[in-house]
Amino acid sequence: MEFLETLINGLSVGSTYAMIALGYTMVYGIAKMLNFAHGDIIMVGGYIIYLSLAGFGNPVIGLIGAVIFCVLLGILAEKIAYKPLRGASPLAVLITAIGVSYLLQSTAQMIFGSAPKMVIIANLGNFEFGGLKIPVYTVVTLVCCFAIMTILTLFVKYTKTGRAMIAVSEDKGAAQLMGINVNGIITITFAIGSALAAFAGFFMLMKSPSLSNTLGAMPGIKAFTAAVIGGIGSIPGAMLGGILLGVVEAISFKIPAIAPYTDAIEFLILIVILLVRPSGLMGKKRREKV
Q1: CB within 8 A of 228, min separation 6: which ones?
Q2: For helices 182-207 and 136-158, what crossing angle results, to 10°?
Q3: Domain membership of residue 180 as a residue range
Q4: Is-contact 247 269, C-beta < 8 A?
Q5: Does residue 220 contact residue 20 with C-beta atoms inside 8 Å?
Q6: N or C: which end of the chain has fewer CB within 10 A?
Q7: How far is CA 182 from the centre of its chain?
Q8: Is residue 28 part of a domain?
Q9: What is the full DSSP assignment across 231-252?
Q10: What is the pLDDT of residues 159-197, one digit of tens each?
Q11: Closest to 23 in 3D by CA, of 78, 63, 65
Q12: Is residue 171 part of a domain?
């Protein structure tokens, strides 16, 4: 029973990582850039939820407000910081993304201070069945995350916009010749990734109600690790990498001898997988055009 509880908790944490990883992998797959400010969008969404709860006391309003604000912020960041660098070197884009990350963290610290804020979204209690005791927020997170990821997968696979995303990820030039608005597709991708970050922030605060300007830093790094493990640019790979990382983390925390080294174990898995399969578990090998 204890192992089953640990597994369910790991799936819950992993599905949250997967949601964040989807933002990384979609932006990389389509815009071919690593948006290291993505984790800080989670933090911004957390503060919007905090303000909404203080003003309205309703977590649903907080979630809706966070999604809208994060989507607008993601689009604004793409237009101002990343679009002018569309033809620049990957290093220039990477440095800019890191700069946007620190800008968001510093701005949040100036507005809200460095002291953590307590954000109590809801006290849902525990779910008990046949000796199995699981926090309700764990089940809610797991179900909601898988529902969102399923909807996203169907959107990309079966809608006109989703197919345009696939076309842009394969070949921007050819997609543009076919009449696809590449800049518009990249903007939509940033909007979707930012919305997923807002949802992830909501579920993270359900589990741990402490909010600070570095809320999204470590989860962002772990989600990026999950995206690379699964295969950066692959949506199923991001899901698989997130779930794998969450389960490993939950099991490691339950073993006292290795619990302090959980983060090291997760990054060690990344190194091993990249040594064995550099493109990730579900990544595709791409030939670079000269």
Answers
A1: 241, 270, 274, 280
A2: 170
A3: 2-216
A4: no
A5: yes
A6: C
A7: 23
A8: yes
A9: -TT-HHHHHHHHHHHHHHHHHH
A10: 999 999 989 888 888 888 888 899 999 999 999 999 999
A11: 78
A12: yes
Say what percent of the chain tops pLDDT 90.
Answer: 43
What pLDDT is recorded for position 290? Answer: 41
Residue 289's pLDDT is 47
Half-sphere exposure of 270 (CA within 13 A, CB side): 18
Domains contained in the chain, number: 1
Mean pLDDT on 1-11: 81
Mean of pLDDT over the chain: 88
CB atoms near residue 64 (< 10 Å): 15
Enter the DSSP assignment of 88. S
Residue 70 inside a domain? The answer is yes
Does 246 reside within a domain?
no
Phi, then psi, of 194 in degrees rounded to 5 = -70, -35
Range list of β-strands (E), the chain = 117-118, 126-129, 132-135, 210-211
